[in-house]
């Protein structure tokens, strides 16, 4: 029987959408219809398990799944013995403390002796202990924002993306305690055959992510300015220089990170670069 790897992915929500989008960009084909809990790729040795996000660390630690894509917040909260292979750069959010917006807040010691509702008692408990704050932690599984208004707790600790949910419930964010993004995790006892497949998967993920963070840049420039322009856009190894039909001019092609391009755009124009085109890169192998 051919070796395949199993990867656990959140079955719904933003993390699920971002995870499956990355996998599809890696050229891996599969079907994930509504309500489907398991699927096998048609062109890569991988099987998908669609699970609740808080179950994923345990499934990977127990070897039911070889890999998992999960938020760092769930990984740290569940505290399972797994190997973090890669931070994936999407589904970013923060875990923050919030209180009723009419309350005055100076620092974390506001919570001394108070009660806090959260779905993340471990992360919150560790943070409070680090700052020598003693508070009562109420663990609840959902609708954390309602806790202060019904008298269950004096503050909450919950995931925040934009902060709009807090505002709608009369709360304000006062303390960020944890930053989270999606991570790729692996079981610690994988066979050499499975590790070889995972290496191929990581190669594809790296190619997709490197492409997203870089741009292909083309411009026309006077030959007298080429030395300066090459200093500004060195490229992966060096820029490609092609002569134009107009004497004394060349076309310069290079690959740059988007941040590097915006940092140098004014100097490129000052050096005489014209007709600058910035093209997205689908995948990039370095």
TrEMBL record:
<comment type="similarity">
    <text>Belongs to the ATP phosphoribosyltransferase family. Long subfamily.</text>
</comment>
<dbReference type="InterPro" id="IPR015867">
    <property type="entry name" value="N-reg_PII/ATP_PRibTrfase_C"/>
</dbReference>
<dbReference type="InterPro" id="IPR001348">
    <property type="entry name" value="ATP_PRibTrfase_HisG"/>
</dbReference>
<feature type="domain" description="Histidine biosynthesis HisG C-terminal">
    <location>
        <begin position="213"/>
        <end position="283"/>
    </location>
</feature>
<keyword id="KW-0479">Metal-binding</keyword>
<feature type="domain" description="ATP phosphoribosyltransferase catalytic">
    <location>
        <begin position="52"/>
        <end position="206"/>
    </location>
</feature>
<dbReference type="InterPro" id="IPR013820">
    <property type="entry name" value="ATP_PRibTrfase_cat"/>
</dbReference>
<dbReference type="GO" id="GO:0005737">
    <property type="term" value="C:cytoplasm"/>
</dbReference>
<dbReference type="InterPro" id="IPR020621">
    <property type="entry name" value="ATP-PRT_HisG_long"/>
</dbReference>
<comment type="function">
    <text>Catalyzes the condensation of ATP and 5-phosphoribose 1-diphosphate to form N'-(5'-phosphoribosyl)-ATP (PR-ATP). Has a crucial role in the pathway because the rate of histidine biosynthesis seems to be controlled primarily by regulation of HisG enzymatic activity.</text>
</comment>
<keyword id="KW-0368">Histidine biosynthesis</keyword>
<dbReference type="InterPro" id="IPR018198">
    <property type="entry name" value="ATP_PRibTrfase_CS"/>
</dbReference>
<keyword id="KW-0963">Cytoplasm</keyword>
<dbReference type="Pfam" id="PF01634">
    <property type="entry name" value="HisG"/>
</dbReference>
<dbReference type="GO" id="GO:0000105">
    <property type="term" value="P:L-histidine biosynthetic process"/>
</dbReference>
<dbReference type="Pfam" id="PF08029">
    <property type="entry name" value="HisG_C"/>
</dbReference>
<comment type="pathway">
    <text>Amino-acid biosynthesis; L-histidine biosynthesis; L-histidine from 5-phospho-alpha-D-ribose 1-diphosphate: step 1/9.</text>
</comment>
<keyword id="KW-0067">ATP-binding</keyword>
<protein>
    <recommendedName>
        <fullName>ATP phosphoribosyltransferase</fullName>
        <ecNumber>2.4.2.17</ecNumber>
    </recommendedName>
</protein>
<keyword id="KW-0028">Amino-acid biosynthesis</keyword>
<keyword id="KW-0808">Transferase</keyword>
<keyword id="KW-0547">Nucleotide-binding</keyword>
<dbReference type="InterPro" id="IPR011322">
    <property type="entry name" value="N-reg_PII-like_a/b"/>
</dbReference>
<dbReference type="GO" id="GO:0000287">
    <property type="term" value="F:magnesium ion binding"/>
</dbReference>
<dbReference type="GO" id="GO:0003879">
    <property type="term" value="F:ATP phosphoribosyltransferase activity"/>
</dbReference>
<dbReference type="GO" id="GO:0005524">
    <property type="term" value="F:ATP binding"/>
</dbReference>
<keyword id="KW-0460">Magnesium</keyword>
<keyword id="KW-0328">Glycosyltransferase</keyword>
<dbReference type="InterPro" id="IPR013115">
    <property type="entry name" value="HisG_C"/>
</dbReference>
